[in-house]
Amino acid sequence: MLDFSLMQLMWLASPALPIGGFSYSECLEAGVDTARVATESEAQAWLLDQLHLGLARSELAVVAQAIPAWRAADAARIGTLNAWVLHTRESAELRAQTEQMGRSLLEWLRNHTTATPEHIALLAGLQPTYPLAFALAASATGAEVRDCLLAYAFGWAENMVQAAIKSVPLGQSAGQRILSALTAEIPAAIDHALTLNDATRQAFSPMLAILSAQHEVQYSRLFRS
After folding, report:
1. Does this model's pTM top 0.70?
2. What string of pLDDT tens digits covers the 225 residues of the chain?
3. I want to staple 143 with a disulfide (CB 3.0 to 4.6 A). Which of 5, 10, 44, 193 is the partner?
């Protein structure tokens, strides 16, 4: 990979990217509140399940399909994938998260040099979701699709580990052990995502959706809903 491409992907994966990913727990906080996650091992198992049962089967697959669509300027395909993300968010807070992060990344792209004005205008007209906005940003790096997915998944993993540290709560060393476990599993999750098409891509995590709806009205919380 060229140095430029690698550094751009590192930038997109960084928690310092001003898109607000750190402010969401993706229902982990509700899992803590309902005593489903109370230890390091439970937090690790939760996030590994979320990686394989959620991220790999939906968002990673969408990003994998959206990157070539952006590179081909296939507006119809981009619109279809964006609509799928919107329609498969199973709670108000999950939809609000993908919309807010999509808008924030769109604003970042407006002040960056990695996307053309035409692509930015297309994204802006879509009620952009985060996977489609990330795919646009990643497509402009010139990196291979698999490398782009590694950046997406690692950025997600870092944010979720920080959510676990704050909400369980856990120490930094425990967080690093969980991140190590996630990092070891990310390549397999990406390999699975790359095999999916429109007929096999899915977003079906009913217990996660229930916990998300509970988190929206949770009495006390650290993370956005």
Report:
1. yes
2. 678 899 999 999 998 899 999 999 999 999 999 999 999 999 999 999 999 999 999 999 999 999 999 999 999 999 999 999 999 999 999 999 999 999 999 999 998 877 899 999 999 999 999 999 999 999 999 999 999 999 999 999 999 999 999 999 999 999 999 999 999 999 999 999 999 999 999 999 999 999 999 999 898 888 886
3. 5
Distance CA 123, CA 116 (A): 11
Spatial CA neighbour of 224 closest among 82, 118, 93: 93
With a CB cutoff of 8 Å and minimum separation 6, the contacts of 13 are 151, 152, 154, 155, 158
Q: Which amino acid is at 115?
A: A
Q: Which two tokens stand for residue 182?
A: 């996630």
Q: Which residues contact 64 (CB under 8 A, 6 or more apart)?
A: 145, 149, 193, 194, 196
